[in-house]
Structures are given as structure tokens and as C-alpha cells.
Write a structure and sequence with these properties.
This protein is mainly α and 67 residues long. It has four helices and no strands. 85% of the residues lie in helices and 0% in strands.
Length: 67
């Protein structure tokens, strides 16, 4: 579960960065239809980052902390 959370965080970062870069690039070049679609990908990336962080934190048990 910890690896799944880490992968989900990386996918969320990727989606957010790609959405920001390509969305603003499309907006400044006049392709507003594609800019709206790409800028709407950014919140999905943030949600995936949140879900991945929560999944990786919940995968630790109390036994790991008690040495």
C-alpha cells in the first residue's frame, strides 16, 4: 500500500505540472478550448497527491514505530 501511495503521489505531481505548463501555453497561444481542458486536470492532480499521501501514511502501523 505504501508503494501504491507513492506512485499515486508521483502521478498527481505529473498531472499537475503538465496541466499547468500545457494549459498556460495553450491559453497564451489562443487555444482556449484546450486550455480549459488542461487547466481542469490540475485539481485532479492535487486530489491524487492528497490520496497518495493519505494512503502512504495509513500504510504504516504502530508496530513500525515501536522498536
Amino acid at each position: 500500500m505504501k508503494n501504491l501511495g507513492r506512485i499515486t503521489v508521483y502521478i498527481g505531481i505529473f498531472l499537475s505540472v503538465i496541466g499547468l505548463i500545457l494549459g498556460f501555453l495553450a491559453m497564451f497561444t489562443g487555444m482556449d478550448k484546450y486550455a480549459v481542458i488542461l487547466l481542469n486536470v490540475i485539481p485532479i492532480g492535487f486530489v491524487l497527491m492528497l490520496v497518495g499521501t493519505v494512503a502512504s501514511q495509513f500504510s504504516y502501523s504502530n508496530k513500525d514505530n515501536n522498536n
